Amino acid sequence: MDDVLFQGSFPAFPTDSFMLQKLGVLLREKKAVSNEEWDTLRKEKTDPDELVFAVATRQQVTPRMLAEIEAMILDVAFIDLDAVQIPSEVLKLFTLELMVEHKAIPIKLTGQELLVGMLAPAKSSEIFQTLGAKNPTLALKPAKVLWDALEKRLKQLSDQKKPAASTGGGKKGPRKRLGDIIVDSKYCTAEQMKDALDKAKKDKTRLGAYLVKNGILSNKQLSIALSKQFDIPYIDLEESLVDPVLATLLPKKLCYDHILCPVKKEESKLVVAMTDPTDIITIDHIEMMTGMRISPVVSSELSITAALGKLYGESVDALADQVGGAGAADSGDEGLGDLGENAAPIIKLVNLIITQAVQSGASDIHIEPFEDELRVRFRKDGVMKLQMKPTKAAHAGLVSRIKVMSNLDIAETRVPQDGRIKLHLADRKVDLRVSLVPCVWGEKVCMRLLDQGNLKVNLTDLGFEPHVLELFMDGVKSPNGIVLVTGPTGSGKTTTLYSSLFLLNNPAINIMTAEDPVEYNLMGINQVQCHADIGLDFGAALRSFLRQDPNVIMIGEIRDFETASIAIKAAMTGHLVISTLHTNDAPSTISRLLNMGIEPFSLTTSIRVVEAQRLVRKICKSCATEFKPPPDVVKSLGITPQLLQKLRLTELDLNNLTFSKGTGCQDCDNSGYKGRQGIYEVLGMTGKIREMIENKASTEDLRRQALADGMLSLRESAIYKLLNKRTTVEEIFRTTLDAGGDDQSASKPGAKKGAVSVPASQPAAAAAAFGAVPADMGALTSFTGELQAFRASLEKLSAPAGGQVAIGPEMLRSSLADPLAQIQTLAQAGDPAKALPIIQAQGQKMDFNIRNMMYHFGAPAASRAALPLNELVDTEIIGKLRQHVVTARLLSGRTDIGQGLKVAKNLAKDLPNIYFDIEYFRHVVANVVVNSLMALKPNGELKVMSRLKPGAADRVELVIFDNGAGISPDDQARLFTPFSPLGRKTLGLGLAVSRKLMNACGGQILVKSTPGANTLVTIEFPAAS
């Protein structure tokens, strides 16, 4: 990279000491420099700008690499302008003159947030003052782009503005060939293109389809190339929702024959995706057929075919034939009805929704009405995904059709209703459990799909580790006793129960079950449907079972003392009882039963095994790729030789571990995951555990003993799947927060007293807050000089200067000096396995405190813009709640913060945007939420509400309520005084800084508290005009 290219692409590369430290870490991660080379550069180039230029001119550092690093340092996105298509409507938001002047270009508009690509994102605040004035209703978000790509785009826009006469009277030359466009865009080489042309011609397939099918191009790249060829906008059908009602506008045969798909209807205009938008004859034919003006857009053949499969249903016609014969055989089963071309649109829409859900493997269908729209979502692999948005006018018809199919009262819309639909699909049965609930804008429908064909009844297929499965099966095969399966709703407990029963089921054994509801019908097992409204609850069913000469009894759930006591008596009189319980992990199940009133001796003599479980998503096999994880990720997960030995994976080399992840493909709907499997925590009744139960030991003591006896925690079971390339690191963090085995660092023998350690469930959040952590001891050792200098400068703050309120020495020591000293000691100790997790924890604690100090001592420099408050609540409060919980734990030293936390939000609709600085907003709500979390006890409640200020249309309020300890009257008088920790081991700056930031932007913050009961914080923002 020469000087001209560097100055053009990086006019404002961040050069403060913290940013340069990040630069060094990222360069070493990318293997662009070694530790020794970086240390040498730092010594030779004392000027920061010279240091960055020296890095940029290294042969290993490309412009793109350095741009990606700059984006990571500034926490913004990097955008490759050559690979994105910018809608013309977005480009019109800025004038060409403004783009040229500020070297910035609008890229993507999402709601009221506009992503702006620029060469100097570090100066985005200054640039946005000008750009934001032209678009005051938009929230501008910076992104890093490269100089040559930006210049190319600006030149294209400039050429488009030139008069037609300058281009030869407006006559267009011959259209550029698709292959040339693809090669020019660097999607493939000329040699690859030549080979593809020959093979596509030989196979008699379109060039684009051949390239995508053979993995040379993605669907998106082909669509962009077609858009450039025809000079017509393209649409990414994989990310767009096609309204299923449009299926009634165009015949299915026409769409497949001409490879086109209706996308959306806009008054009298119909947007149609086509592979050849110049086919005037077909466009005229559609216009005559629909009476609407056709607006063509470009998409690839494979994308259109996939969209048509979703729109019309790839096997809808076949299903119609299958349902006809099977439905007649059993009058109690509901058929899908007539699916011909003349079917009513509502019937066809219901059939389409159910068919797509079954074909995609969804577990639940949600039909949700809102004020202006109707939303259909599927839950697939435990994650909700928006499937379609039919017209709101279809809601009443949809609900009525579903009620008819499930034999419910069509006229009743005021109370909830439950029903069931039975379907025959080819050679399998599918049951739909239907629930309707009246909401503000109409009845919401939830349908649970119970597909007998997907029921796994072999325990070995569920994901148990071999030695864990052996322990669980020993309990299930016991002649008597209780086997308990625990976990939250949707964790796969029912499947585990049925698989256990299937293992025991044979003609020599009498098995009886009490369920509510009966989800699957199993041959040879006597299943009873409980009806609490007529007195047939679990307890009543269990009492009657004892007179039915059973060998094995399965109870759907133990909910109360009566059911638990009868189950224990049955187990003690020679029966095997299998049941479920709602607890977070296996050891806490014992405490739950003791709290119900069960005597300890009854538990020790009856319980055989307790199993807790969760479900994690499996990596899609079609797009799985292996990679070597960064060392800090391995260490933060706690993967050690001892853990490998415990998992019985001693053949793995800790220094050469490989993980796997899905890149996304058509098979997994571009999610990278397909299917789910269980992670299990199985507690066996050893002699020591029985003795501890007799002595009513605490849950933590039971857990500690169980882990010492060899029990795998939920986290360790998930790591087993990770090491066997079945799931990902992200899934581990998503599913095992506060699950079994997560918060054990504080209780481990030898743990340093007073040290705050980050919970094992949160290393990613801690690392993200602190920045990248060095991956080896060489990098750690290089920290010591900077750390010593930083400690010295901090100590100067403990004395008053310039009228500022001083930081007390004890406060400084607790919040900054002690964590810093611990990091420095660990950096010199030479043991990265022990150093990294604690450095991450102490780093996050310091990061939070230092930001408060920077805002306190610094002068406000707000960069205000119009911001959507409700969206910010979702992203900055709800979306970052896990990170806030970790921060609160680190600041307070309490590991129970966030346990059993209940969160509720009530956001007013049609609120005006607030006029505020986005960084100030993030910091204010972080301070308030962290304070609320520290005040809460386990199982506490946090409520968030937005509204217009009563009597003031130009002010918007955000209210945060917690039912914690409250604030005493004396402390309330000092709430906004800097460095008033109010009895906590914190800096006491949060609320003082928050008020300062609010005042700087024309807002205010108010606190009302009832000691011992609750606290209510009102944050008032000015509304955008």
| Secondary-structure class | alpha/beta
Give me the number of helical elements: 41
What is the terminal-to-terminal distance? 46 Å
Shape, per Cα inertia axes: globular
- Number of E-state strands: 29
List the helices and strands and how they pair.
Elements: H1 3-9, H2 17-29, H3 35-44, H4 48-56, H5 63-74, E1 77-78, H6 88-91, H7 96-102, E2 104-110, E3 113-118, H8 124-134, E4 139-144, H9 147-161, H10 178-184, H11 190-203, H12 207-213, H13 219-230, H14 252-258, E5 260-266, E6 269-274, H15 280-290, E7 293-298, H16 301-313, H17 316-329, H18 345-360, E8 364-369, E9 374-380, E10 383-388, H19 395-405, E11 417-425, E12 428-439, E13 442-451, H20 466-476, E14 481-486, H21 493-504, E15 511-515, E16 526-529, H22 538-545, E17 552-555, H23 561-572, E18 576-581, H24 586-596, H25 600-606, E19 607-619, E20 624-627, H26 631-636, H27 641-646, E21 659-662, E22 673-684, H28 687-694, H29 699-708, H30 714-723, H31 729-735, H32 763-770, H33 777-781, H34 783-795, H35 809-829, H36 832-857, E23 864-867, H37 869-878, H38 881-892, E24 902-907, E25 914-917, H39 918-935, E26 941-948, E27 955-962, H40 969-972, H41 990-1000, E28 1004-1010, E29 1014-1022
Parallel strand pairs: 1-4, 3-4, 6-7, 14-18, 14-19, 15-16, 15-17, 17-18, 24-26
Antiparallel strand pairs: 2-3, 5-6, 8-9, 8-13, 9-10, 11-12, 12-13, 19-22, 20-21, 23-25, 26-27, 27-29, 28-29
Helix pairs in contact: 2-5, 18-19, 22-23, 24-29, 25-28, 28-29, 32-36, 34-35, 35-36, 36-41, 38-39, 39-41
